[in-house]
Amino acid sequence: MAIIIVLVILVVLVVIALVQTIQVIQQASAAIVERFGRYTRTLNAGLNIVVPFIDRIRNRIDLREQVVPFPPQPVITQDNLVVNIDTVIYYQVTDARAATYEVSNYIQAIEQLTVTTLRNIIGGMDLERTLTSREEINAALRGVLDEATGKWGIRVNRVELKAIEPPTSIQDSMEKQMRADRDKRASILQAEGVRQSEILQAEGAKQSEILRAEGDAKAAALRAEGEAQAIRTVFEAIHAGDADQKLLAYQYVQMLPKIAEGDANKVWIVPSELGDALKGLGGTLNKYTGAPPNGGGNGGSDPSSLSKPPTREQPRIE
């Protein structure tokens, strides 16, 4: 019975020894091996053999790039305003030995270094510059962290500011200012639109007046040209027909009712040539009716005894 117990103990010891001897390290990982409490070597990815009960795996470190968000930190700006800043650090362990022995907790160390560096950088900026200079802050913070963490076997790849939150009163003031700026721009755009509309309307009215005036001028010119053409045609017809004084007197008599049609025709202007024309027309009528030329049978007076207007030269139609 005792032999069986001893054998079982030996088997268990052998299994434990084998488990401690064969170490499998995952890809993108590293392990620190200590022998009697002293650093011996770093195990890389793959199958590794260590001395059981003598060598000990102290720490397994992930060599991949890590992302660590830090909680908001109050920071005072140059103009004595407190802002809360959230940061995110992208880092990667490049030396597992240094990350294990050079610093006790490198994540906590990076966080505290980030806070102090951020306070130094923001302390030299006012609020407006802080809100508009994220790239500058990121670059300055990354440079300081990368230099400080290099001896810890850590490389800081990127530093990002997630949020910069000014005090509530400052946020309200900024919102009111932005609203005022938007209202101002809207008023300016509306005024520009009204001004442009009035200019376009004035230009349209001006162009319309110009076109109307040009149309009236062309219409008047065409009417004058038509009247001139009509006069020319009448003149040529009279000249071709060789009209005498009797025909002209007859035309005068026909035009008198048309002259009297208008309501404003209160005064008639009778040309002096109308008397001579009527005299010729009367002689012609007496000739056809057989009445005396002087109208003696009716007791009328001699037309020749009437006062005659001054003789005027008769117009000639050539």
Can you walk me through this structure?
- The structure is a single chain.
- The protein is 54% helix and 20% strand.
- The chain is built from eight helices and eight strands.
- Strands 3-2-5 form a three-stranded antiparallel β-sheet.
- A hairpin with a 2-residue loop joins strand 2 and strand 3.
- Helix 3 crosses helix 5 and helix 7 packs across helix 8.
- The chain is rod-shaped, with a radius of gyration of 61 Å.
Relative helix content: 40-55%
Contiguous runs where pLDDT drops below 50 for at least 5 residues? 295-318
Cα(first) to Cα(last) distance is 169 Å
Number of strands: 8
Strand order in the sheet with the most strands: 3-2-5
Tell me the Rg in angstroms: 61 Å
The count of helical stretches stands at: 8
Q: Which geometry do the CA atoms define?
A: rod-shaped
Largest sheet: 3 strands, antiparallel
The secondary structure category is alpha+beta
Output mean pLDDT.
77
Helices and strands, in order, run as: HEEEEEEEHHHHEHHH
Strand percentage lies at: 15-25%
